[in-house]
Amino acid sequence: MKIAVFDLRGPFAHFRKYYTNTSSLSYPFPPRTVLMGIIAAILGWERDSYYEKLNPDNARFGVVIKVPVRSLFQTVNYIRTKEEDLNVMKKLGFMKGTQVPLELLLPGGGAPMLNYRIYFGHREEKITEEVAKSLEQNKPYFPLYLGLTEFIAQAQLVYFGKPSKIISAGEEVMLHSILTVDFLKKPFLTNGITLNREKAPEAFSEGRNLLPPKSYIYETSGRPWKAILSIDAYSFSLPSGEENVAFMEGELWSTMPTEKSTESE
Questions:
Q1: In the beta sheet, which residues pair with residue 168?
Q2: What is the Rg, in whole angstroms, of the alpha carbon atoms belonging to the chain?
Q3: Cα dihedral angle (103, 108, 113, 116), rounded to 10 degrees?
Q4: What tens digit of pLDDT does each residue of 181-229 get?
Q5: Tag placement on the chain: N or C end, fewer CB within 10 Å?
Q6: Phi and psi for 232 in degrees, rounded to 5?
């Protein structure tokens, strides 16, 4: 099974945590629901039309934080623009704004852009091919952005193909991607590695209702870290080097022909 690997870049990002109210806090990486929207935008799927197509049974996502992320809080004014509010504005001539602290994500380590490497595969390989073709031609159907419409993103195809090998569950792996907590058996906290944990939404049901969230672990500086997993991880030979990825939903489908690393050695 082929996987589309692409870099998602931009100077700013904000991925709002679903449980915040008075302050708009951000996840340090795009949650799976954001990635669903990115794929839908690339392919031109309309809002609310893709929840079944990209649910955890049908689609696989992996995320690698390629650039350290730092945050900056900025207070912004929100103005209600619903129809009933516009009627009040016409009568009064103004509408008082609401000041809300907004957490902005910026690139750290001297990098000019945030960079998230996205791994995407679909049970219907034709969909994965369409994503790769659109990115190769630099022609996403809709504009892409990092959480907010003001934060325009650029997407560049890095690789389209099969994993070079499978790292079997129970083996030590130097992991580059974020990891669903349920799949972690043992982490190795060496060489100053610092792990953090976030609870983020996974998918939507009909009516745009959030399904139960999942917990994810990531290295705070975006460095690879060693662990033993309860699922297979996948190694990809990319132009920039080898990367080991665990998909957020679990293993790829059993029809994938790539040989396991233990069998090829």
A1: none
A2: 20
A3: -80
A4: 999 999 998 888 999 999 999 998 877 888 899 999 999 899 999 999 9
A5: C
A6: -70, 145
